[in-house]
Amino acid sequence: MTTRRARAGAFTAGVLCANSLPHLATAVTGRRHLTPIGGAQSAPWINAAWGTANLLAGLALARRVAGGEGRWDSRLVAFDLGAAAFATWMASSEAAMRVNWHGKDDR
C-alpha cells in the first residue's frame, strides 16, 4: 500500500471511528438521533447498529492501513486529522442546522 493511500485510509478510519461515538452515546441514553438508515428520528437500536457498524469499519480499516507495523508514523496523524475533521464538521453543522437538538422530552 502506498503512503498516500495508507494516509487516506487512516483519515477515513478516523472519520468512521469518530462518527460512531455520537450514535453509540445516543443509543446508550435511549434517545433518538439522525442516521442514514432510519432518518431524522432513528430509534436507539438503529443508532446502536449504525454506531457499531461505523466503529467496526473504522477499526478494520485502521488495522489494514497499519499493515502489522509497530509504528503508525504519519498514518496516526492522518487518523487524528480524520477524527478532528469529523468533530469540527459535526459541531458546525449541528450549531447551524440543529438537526439533532430537541426539547427536554425527546425520547
**What's the order of the H and E elements?**
HEEHH
Helix content percent band: 55-70%
Spatial ordering of strands, largest sheet: 1-2
Radius of gyration: 15 Å
How many extended strands? Answer: 2
Mean pLDDT: 86
Overall, the morphology is elongated
Tell me the domain tally: 1
Q: Helical stretch count?
A: 3
Ranges with pLDDT <50 over ≥5 residues? none
Structural class, please? mainly alpha
Beta-strand residue fraction: 5-15%
Profile the largest sheet.
Answer: 2 strands, antiparallel
Task: Give the N-to-C terminal Cα separation.
Answer: 45 Å
Provide a descriptive summary of the structure in words.
The chain has 107 residues and is mostly helical. It has one domain (3-97). It has helices at residues 3-29, 44-66, 74-97; strands at residues 33-35, 39-42. It has a two-stranded antiparallel ribbon. Helix 1 runs antiparallel to helix 2 (44-66).
Please give the structural blueprint:
Elements: H1 3-29, E1 33-35, E2 39-42, H2 44-66, H3 74-97
Antiparallel strand pairs: 1-2
Helix pairs in contact: 1-2, 1-3
Jot down its keywords:
mainly alpha, two-stranded antiparallel ribbon, 69% helix, elongated
Concise summary:
With 107 residues, the protein is mainly alpha-helical. It is 69% helix and 7% strand. It contains three helices and two strands, in the order H-E-E-H-H.
